[in-house]
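Minutes, project check-in
Item: structure for the 231-residue chain
Input as provided by the requester:
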Amino acid sequence: MNYSWYIAKRYLVSKREAAFITVISIISVIGITIGVAALLIVLSVFNGFNSLVTDILVGFDPHLRISVSRETTPQELHKIETFLQNENSAGIGEFVSGKVMLISKKATRVVFLRGVEANSLSKISGLNDKIIIGSGELQEGEGNKIILGYSLADKLGLDVGDSMYVLSASSVNNYFLTMQIPKLIQCEVSGIYESNNREYDAVYAFTSLSTGKHIYNTKKYFRNRPSIEFV
């Protein structure tokens, strides 16, 4: 008999007059087995959850987003762009973002609308890979196209090809300050995406950079300089 097996048998299987020691050994082995199994299960679940979160967040959104403020100068943005281009980044793109009100015949929702560059969208975001209905293309100068999340489109009762109105927070602010009629911009749904995150799908929409500038009136408030995001 193998020496290791002999030691194991000696301490696991006792004589009849010392049967209580055998019971303790069995209980100890069962306890250790359950503890190790629980540890392996927890580690496996957390590793899988980490991969899922990474795929949803990092794989869908850019790795870094730099936003401008009213104090940001064009020279500062130019320095940042030059630095990022020299760092061998996979993609760099400009964007504008903010809160808007989406108005359809069925419902009204306040969401975050992001205007992104069509040429760099596939490099800095996984949006095109998440499109389930319609197209993820947001070409400049081809009308006011918008891409909605699956949950958001369902709440608004919209499908690809349907029209809706977009009202920005700046337009509402102008109404209270200058009593000007808020500007409603009509957009057409060109695609619907699903990112496996219902909360994300319900509050984020995308459009082209030119449409985003038009909605947020960046020429007036941010010197026509959008923010930067890159991978």
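Outcome recorded: The beta strands are 64-66, 92-103, 108-116, 131-134, 145-149, 163-168, 185-193, 204-208, 227-230.
No further action items on this chain.
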